[in-house]
C-alpha cells in the first residue's frame, strides 16, 4: 500500500478461515467420547490460531448408513478433474469471448437442502448474472459482508442479478440444516441458500475460505473472484458491468459507501488478536501465568475436539473461561446443551460491561449485571465497539452444558490514518 507505514497493518480483506470438512473431524452420529480430552483446568490456558499454509483435507464420503465416512475422496480426484474438463470443453467458446480471463462455473450440485428456494441450477440461470456467496453463519468476517450483499439484492435483483448463498460449515453444529435455517431467518437473508454441509459445492469450486464472492456472467463463466472481506466497490461495479452485458441499458446508482471505516481501501488499522479456537484439535495449552493473548479456564471443563464444555452444576459462579485480547470488538461462538438456555455472566477487567461498549447480544439483570442468554448455537456479539486496548473478558457459568468454540475480534482505523468515507467510482 503506497504511502502507508509498513510497520502498521493495513485493513486488508480479512478471511474468516480455511474451510475444513467438519464431518471428518466430528462424524455425525459419533459418540462424544470418541474425541474427548478431559482436564480439570486450574488456570491453564488455551490459545489457538489456525496455522498458516493449512491445506484442505479430503472431502468426507457417506457410507451405506448415511453417516460420513473417512477421507476417501479428494477435491482434485480423477473424477473431478474429468468432470471439470468436460465442463470446460462445453463452455469454452463462451468464456473465451469474455472481456477478461474467465472459466466456466461448476454446477451447484450436492447440497443437503436449500432454504428460501427450491434447488437452483446455473444451467437454468443462463442470461442472468449470478453472485455466489460462500459463508458460514458463525463467522464474524462473513457477517460483516451481509450489509453489502443484502443491499445488492435490493438494488439489482429486479434487474437480473441472482444471489445464491452457499453455507459451508465450520463446526459440527453448523452442519445441521435446521440450525442454518434459523440463522438465515435471524440474519434476514431472503435469497436462496444452499446448505453445503458435505462441501460438495465448495469442492467443485475448490473453495477453502470464508467469506468468498464469485460473480458469474450470463454465459455461465466466472468473471470475478473475491476472497475475504473488502473489494465491495469492485464487486458492485462488476455486477453493473455484467448486467449491461446482459442487456440492461438503464442507469445504475453509484456503488455503496463503505459501511465501516475499516472497509475503505488504504485504511490502516490497529493489530487485533487473531481468532482463538478452544477445541484440542486446533488448540494448545499455555503455561500458567502466561500473559500472551489467549484463553484460559478455571473450574471443571471438558475439552472436546472443537470446543470447551462446562461439566458440572454449582450453586455459585466460580467457574469461568477468560480471554485476554487486544481489539475493539469481541465475538464468542457458543451453544447450550441439556437445557433450553443458559445465563452466562460477562465481566471485562473485573467489572460488569458498560452499556456503551456492550455488544448486541448482551443483556442486564435487575442488579445491573451483564450476561448473555445462550439459547442457540451461534456467534454472540459481546463487545460492540470500544477504544482499542488490551483487556480481559471472563465468562461465568454455574450450570453445566455450556460449550465455547471460539473468540473472534474486530479492530479500528488508527486515528492518524482515518480515510475519507465517500462513494467509490
Key traits:
alpha+beta; Jelly Rolls; Glutaredoxin; 14-stranded antiparallel beta sheet; 7 helices; 16% helix; disordered C terminus
Commentary on this structure:
The chain has 425 residues and is α+β, with helices and mostly antiparallel strands. It has two domains: 156 residues, Sandwich (Jelly Rolls), CATH 2.60.120; 184 residues, 3-Layer(aba) Sandwich (Glutaredoxin), CATH 3.40.30. The chain is built from seven helices and 23 strands. Strands 2, 11, 12, 13, 14, 15, 16, 17, 18, 19, 20, 21, 22 and 23 form a 14-stranded antiparallel β-sheet that branches. A seven-stranded mixed β-sheet has the order 3-10-9-5-6-7-4. Strands 1-8 form a two-stranded antiparallel sheet.
